[in-house]
Design brief:
single chain, alpha/beta, 4-stranded mixed β-sheet, 25 helices, 12 strands
Length: 570
């Protein structure tokens, strides 16, 4: 259960996001009070956590909230109850967001049902196809939503009701079910409890102790001379609940025989800090795991891959005439199997009898690796044990040594390198100037290396096909990364200040390419580029976005530059 300290910690993170926004937009934002600053940061933090979008500029473009846009852009168009809209092109979801940020902590305060129904004002307009009352950003995004709904593809609607209140909205209520029946709306409520799980603050070390039969354990060492051992352990789900719960005294109680006290515990989410996936609020409990735990607990071992743990130290001691082993796991993290662990804890909390009736009969595999303080080994274990599952290449690469080096180097230049959602920098007390995601840095570097036409439409390949070329070849210079990030934001700021061209990341990637290819100031390069873009296939109805991924356009740009006298030799 989240408490007042979690509430305060959330406020601190929200203020960090507000400060980052000011740096990203290169402007002073002056809302009337500090609580308004926290509220603005809350929008950014939650959209990043739910949508797994680490680019602040991209998140800002989704926000329709009247107050937010008034404070940030001095454009306060009516939002009609929807604070943000996101079109998920991969999963075919239209995501609507309704936020409520409370100034004071109240442990008994529950999300207001009326806030949910406020969102139907905009939904009604979209379903009716009548946007006459809308304007600005809200109208622009609503128009895109209507185009999706009128198209041939199947699209689902999802409403997120998000607040920093302690008690979440009951999404199974009659009123919410009526909303679902009327609009085919899936409603997801996120309150302080769920938000607390997604706040990645590096935890203090967590230790636990196990006492198990010798035939349930398989030790492993790299050589016969090595004293450092890792273990593969068969463990009951009830014991797993104990060693991963948020009560230290229970984690150390290896003699426990009555597991009923565990019915009231929760998982210690700090154990997932090093998990490659990060803590994404939108992640669902695995229904297949829940069904197996309830219907076939004794077969769970056959159906589940188990968990992987890395630990700074593992101490073992033979006991009970060498029939059992006492194992103490020090400073450990769950690097694979986080969803299974969350689902098992969720099942435990569903009914106080589940811990003794079902989980005590359920067994699973636990791989425990001793990594000491070797972060390289620890990260490789996390990477390779996750590579067998459905997980993105960018998340897998987030633990590569070069990515950790980039994070540390950018930190010295006051730049946050967001390898996972919710990252607010290595040092929480530091005043960072910029925040850049792994994906965006990859696009920046790919563009500078000569491929701006591929940086947008082939961005998934940046962390797959082109990864070595961008981050590990002789083209990669770690010391240049702060300069590249600052140059990106400088170009973005100048582009937007001109107020004569439509600005997009695609265009900025091209200007970055030109910046390191030819002499002249940034404005001159923008004008040259925009003139060529305007005249390219001008007799055809083709959007700028399509032109920019066209190989021939890039070739014509190169030809234009080669004819100029001030081309810089490579």
């Amino acid at each position: 259960m989240a408490n007042i300290n979690d509430f305060k910690l959330l406020n601190i993170k929200c203020r960090s996001y507000f400060d980052i926004l000011e740096h990203v937009l290169d402007k002073n934002i002056e809302p009337p009070t500090d609580i308004h600053k926290d509220r603005i940061g809350f929008y950014l933090l939650m959209l990043e956590s739910v949508l797994n979008i680490k680019d602040i500029s991209e998140i800002v473009n989704l926000i329709t909230d009247k107050e937010f846009n008034q404070f940030v852009f001095n454009k306060g168009e009516e939002d009609y109850g929807v604070d943000a809209i996101h079109i998920d092109e991969e999963e075919n979801y239209i995501n609507f967001f309704n936020f409520k940020f409370r100034e004071k902590y109240n442990p008994n305060k529950e999300q207001n049902l009326n806030e949910t129904f406020l969102s139907t004002k905009l939904t009604n307009a979209i379903v009716a196809g009548d946007l006459s009352l809308l304007s600005g950003k809200t109208k622009k995004i609503a128009k895109r939503v209507i185009e999706k709904l009128n198209g041939r593809e199947i699209w689902k609607l999802r409403l997120y009701v998000i607040s920093n209140e302690s008690k979440e909205l009951n999404v199974d209520s009659m009123e919410i079910n009526q909303l679902k029946n009327l609009y085919d709306f899936e409603t997801i409520a996120i309150g302080l409890d769920s938000i607390t799980e997604s706040m990645s603050i590096r935890p203090e070390s967590i230790n636990s102790t196990l006492h198990i039969d010798k035939d349930s354990i398989l030790p492993f060492s790299e050589s016969s001379l090595s004293s450092s051992k890792s273990y593969v352990i068969r463990i009951t789900a009830s014991d797993l609940i104990r060693i991963t719960c948020n009560d230290k005294s229970l984690r150390d109680d290896y003699k426990m025989e009555d597991f009923s006290p565990l019915a009231n515990t929760k998982m210690d989410f700090n154990l997932l800090f090093d998990n490659v996936r990060g803590l994404i609020v939108k992640s669902k409990f695995n229904n297949g795991i829940l069904e197996t735990l309830k219907d076939e607990p004794t077969k769970f071992f056959l159906f589940n891959n188990g968990l992987t743990i890395t630990a700074t130290d593992i101490k073992s001691e033979d006991t009970n005439a060498n029939k059992k082993v006492k194992i103490t796991i020090e400073d450990f993290q769950i690097v694979n199997g986080g969803q299974s662990l969350r689902t098992i804890h969720h099942f435990n909390q569903m009914d106080e009898e589940n811990i003794t009736k079902y989980l005590s009969q359920c067994q699973l595999l636990l791989r425990v690796f001793k990594t000491a303080n070797d972060s390289k080994v620890r990260n490789k274990i996390a990477q390779f044990t996750n590579s067998q599952n459905a997980i993105s290449n960018i998340d897998l690469k987030s633990l590569n040594e070069e990515q950790l080096q980039i994070e540390q180097f950018l930190d010295t230049a006051d730049i946050i390198y967001a390898r996972k959602t919710g990252d607010t920098g290595i040092n929480p007390s530091k005043n960072y100037k910029y925040k850049i995601s792994m994906e965006k840095l990859g696009q920046i570097m790919f563009s500078i290396q000569g491929f701006p036409e591929k940086a947008s439409n082939q961005k998934k390949q940046i962390f797959d096909k082109y990864y070595f070329q961008i981050f590990k070849s002789e083209n990669f210079d770690l010391t240049k990364t702060p300069e590249f990030v600052k140059k990106y934001f400088e170009i973005k700021s100048i582009y937007e200040s001109l107020n004569i061209y439509k600005v997009s990341d695609q265009k900025i990637f091209y200007i970055l390419y030109l910046e390191y290819l030819m002499n002249g100031n940034i404005k001159e390069k923008i004008d040259l580029f925009e003139n060529l873009l305007k005249n390219y296939r001008s007799n055809e109805e083709i959007s700028d976005a399509r032109k920019l991924i066209n190989t021939r356009f890039k070739e014509e740009l190169d030809e234009k530059i080669s004819n100029l006298a001030e081309v810089v030799a490579n």
